[in-house]
C-alpha cells in the first residue's frame, strides 16, 4: 500500500478513536451528574427503546418461506382448497407470499378462489333456510346435467343409499348420476393396479373345470361378495354347476364390482391350475 494511503488511514483511525473517547468521557460525566432516580429512569427508557427496536426488526424480517406459507394455507383449509375450512386464514397466509417467489402465481389464483368461497358463505348466511335449500338443489342439478363441475363429497343415507353434497355437507341429495360410485370404483382400481404384477390365490365358485384344454383361455366375469372381494368366476353363461376351487388372480380382487378377466388353464408336469388376469 502506498505511504500516502497508509498515512491517510492512520489519521482516520486516530480521529475515530479520539471521537469515541470524547463521547465516552462525555457520557461518563453526564451519568455521574445524574441522581439515582434519574439514572433508573434513563436505564428504563433505554430498555424500552431496545425492546421496540427488536420488535420492529423482527416484524420487518419475515423468515417464513413461501412454501411454508402455502403449507399453512393448506392447513387452514384442512388439506383441500376446493372446500376450505377457514378461507380467511388461508388468504392471510397466501397474501404474504412475495411477488418474486415462484409460488406467487399459484397463490394469487388460490386467493381468488378463497375470496369466492368467502362471498359464497356470506351469501348463504344471508339466505333463509328455504332459499338456501332451493339454491343447493339448483346447484346440484347443474352438476348432474353437466353445466357445472363443482367439487362434491359423498356419504350414505340412513336408507343405505348413496347421497352427494355440493355445498360441503349443508344439504344432501340422492346421487342420481352415480358419481360417488364411479369415484369409489376409480379409487379401488387405482389401489388394485399394483396387484397386476404378482398373483393372489383365492378360493371361488366357478364353472372352470378339467374339461378345459391345457393353455385354453376364455373371457370370464367375476362377481364380488358383500365385502367387495371376488367370490365367483363365470366363464360359461349356460353352465349351472359351479364348484369351489382355488384360482390365481393377477389384478385387484377387492374391486367391489363385476369385472372382466382373461382366464387360462395352465397345466404342466408340476402343476395344473387356473389363472385369471384382469382386463379392466
Helicity range:
40-55%
Number of helices: 7
What structural class do helix, strand and pairing data support? alpha+beta
User: In which order are the strands of the major sheet placed?
Assistant: 4-6-5-8-9-7
Number of domains: 3
Beta content comes to: 15-25%
> Care to count the β-strands?
9
Radius of gyration: 37 Å
**Biggest sheet, in brief?**
6 strands, mixed, barrel
- Gap between N and C termini, in Å? 82 Å
Which runs of at least 5 residues are low in confidence (pLDDT < 50)?
none
The gross shape turns out to be elongated
Q: Mean pLDDT score, rounded?
A: 80
* SSE arrangement, N to C: HHHHHHEEEHEEEEEE
Highlighted features:
9 strands, 7 helices, 3-stranded antiparallel beta sheet, 280 residues, 3 domains, alpha+beta, 6-stranded mixed β-barrel
Account of the protein in words:
This protein has a 6-stranded mixed beta barrel with strand order 4-6-5-8-9-7. The chain is elongated, with a radius of gyration of 37 Å. The protein has 280 residues and is of the alpha+beta class. The model has no long low-confidence stretch (mean pLDDT 80). The protein has helices spanning 3-33, 36-60, 66-76, 87-94, 104-126, 129-144, 179-192; strands at residues 153-156, 162-165, 173-174, 200-206, 217-224, 230-234, 243-250, 259-267, 272-278.
Brief summary:
The chain is an alpha+beta fold and 280 residues long. Helices cover 46% and strands 19% of the residues. A hairpin with a 7-residue loop joins strand 2 (162-165) and strand 3.
